[in-house]
Amino acid sequence: MILPEKYSKWNGIPREEIDWHPTIEANQCTGCGMCVVSCGREVFDFNKEIKKSEVSRPLQCMVGCTSCKAWCVFGAISFPDDQRVKDLIKRKNILPHVKRLLEQKLQKNAAADSVSP
Ligand code: SF4
Ligand code: SF4
Asked: From ligand 2's centre to the CA of 93, what distance in Å?
């Protein structure tokens, strides 16, 4: 499975180096389809033979996102502890990179505001 370019890095870190994705407990999955239709990153597929969802593209999961866990009313989806993401942010010293992105975003917003009527 080829990872699309837009998902290939997270804040400069190659996505393959980050262990973050949902896990489905098959015995608890009822095949309701909520995660399949709701995830905006196409992480899940629906297996028609067993009538359950599967994690087909784990590396496309947004690092730190747990939305599908909240959507699964059957409690079938789990994630690693979010401390793993916090530790990664510290270990890889990501915050200076984030600060640069924030500055770029604020400049872009200010430029857009200055041309809008
Ligand atoms: S939301 Fe939960 S129960 Fe529904 S298909 Fe996804 S994993 Fe299965
Ligand atoms: S955590 Fe977010 S991005 Fe990752 S699979 Fe769930 S809904 Fe999709």
From this structure: 24
Q: What are the structural domains, with CATH classification, of the chain? A: 5-115 (3.30.70.20)
Instruction: Please give the chain's pLDDT, 117 residues, in tens.
Output: 789 999 999 999 999 999 999 999 999 999 999 999 999 999 999 999 999 999 999 999 999 999 999 999 999 999 999 999 999 999 999 999 999 999 999 999 999 988 876
pTM across the whole model: 0.91
Residues 11 and 17 sit within 8 Å (Cβ to Cβ): no
Nearest ligand to the CA atom of 76: 1
The pick from 39, 72, 73, 78 for probing ligand 1's pocket by mutation, whose C-beta has the most ligand atoms within 8 angstroms, reads 72
